Amino acid sequence: MTLSKTQRIAGLSLAAVALILFFVFRPAPLPVDTGVVRRGPLQVTLDGEGVTRVNDRYVLAAPVTGKLLRMTIEEGDSVRKGSVLASLLPPELDSRAGQEAAAKAEAARALFAEANARHRRALLTREQADRHAVRYRNLKQEGAVSLEAAELAASEAAIARKEAEAAGAAATAARYSLDAIQTFTNSQISGKPLAVISPADGRVLRIHEKSERLITAGSPIVDIGDPSAIEIVIDVLSSEATKVRPGNPVVITAWGGRKDLRGVVKSIEPAAYTKVSALGIEEKRVNIVALLNAYEPLLGDNFRVQAEIVLSEANNVLQVPVSALFRGKDEWHLFVIDGGKAVEKAVRIGMRGTWQAELLSGLREGEKVVVHPTNELRDGMRVKIQE
């Protein structure tokens, strides 16, 4: 049956109207933001707030009750080992007080002996760590061990040296505490003021008591230390602290200077503590202690900083923005742009950093993916890339 000319025109008109209605009423492409699959370096970091503190800090306290004479030093003053920091006028010594002074002197001698033993043990550990680092450096040159193993041995040697220095400082402080108690006893007998002397070279960090007044035994008088020996105390969640190891690199940011500072994890404190978050939630947190690689004179004691602990890193990996990923049933998914449409694909993820994640399989370098996908986006939906 042959269609008439009128019927053909009517059919074409209906098809044109249907096509026009399709383009008029079909959904507009969904605007999306995109990222690109690329190769490059990737770091996995654990971020947290930190506070600086002087590594070898001496808190000089009153050995017994007495009258503290007016201080002549100021915070920030440089002091030398053996210089007088404060003067304490002790009360008169009776028979009972004499027995107490003798007991305190005996306890101070015991603490001095213990500190000396710890110092000797730390020196032995340092010597062993130094030999271990030299051996691994030689093995690395021969290709017998990896660069990471040699660097870890070098970091352990550096940490052992710092711990030996701290143990030596503790032994020095114990010796000066013993000397102070013995001098105090002698001053009680003679009626002369007791001199509180500096156990090491450094600077006055804090003066607890500036005015002349009566203070009790054990009251802190002055803090001294070496500001060049700064360490960073970083508090992190206890569940995250298990990923950190001594020797992990640390990047210090937001400390007030123009450039970031570099350091290394010295130790992870063995006990957690409870801290209430800004949302009022109780959290278990652990202190990570890090050492700076180089002295920064602008960074002082008790400064607030931001820290990034590098857990793992790689130089040339295929990576995708973390904001493009979402969970499917049992694996990670994302939307890739293909011919103006969003196509949902499953991918395998390796290392996951703050902004980028390692892509093990599923996409090729250069492909565009949708970042921050909305709930409206569906597989096969037309999309428009926002500039």
TrEMBL record:
Residues in YknX-like C-terminal permuted SH3-like domain copies: 317-385
Entry's Gene Ontology cellular component terms: efflux pump complex
Gene Ontology MF terms: efflux transmembrane transporter activity
Name of one Pfam family that matches: YknX_C
SUPFAM superfamilies membership: HlyD-like secretion proteins
Gene3D superfamilies: 2.40.30.170, 2.40.420.20, 2.40.50.100, Helix hairpin bin
Family matches, as InterPro entries: RND_pump_MFP (IPR006143), YknX-like_C (IPR058637)
Superkingdom field: Bacteria
Similarity field: Belongs to the membrane fusion protein (MFP) (TC 8.A.1) family.
Name the UniProt record assigns to this protein: Secretion protein HlyD
Organism from which the protein derives: Chlorobium ferrooxidans DSM 13031
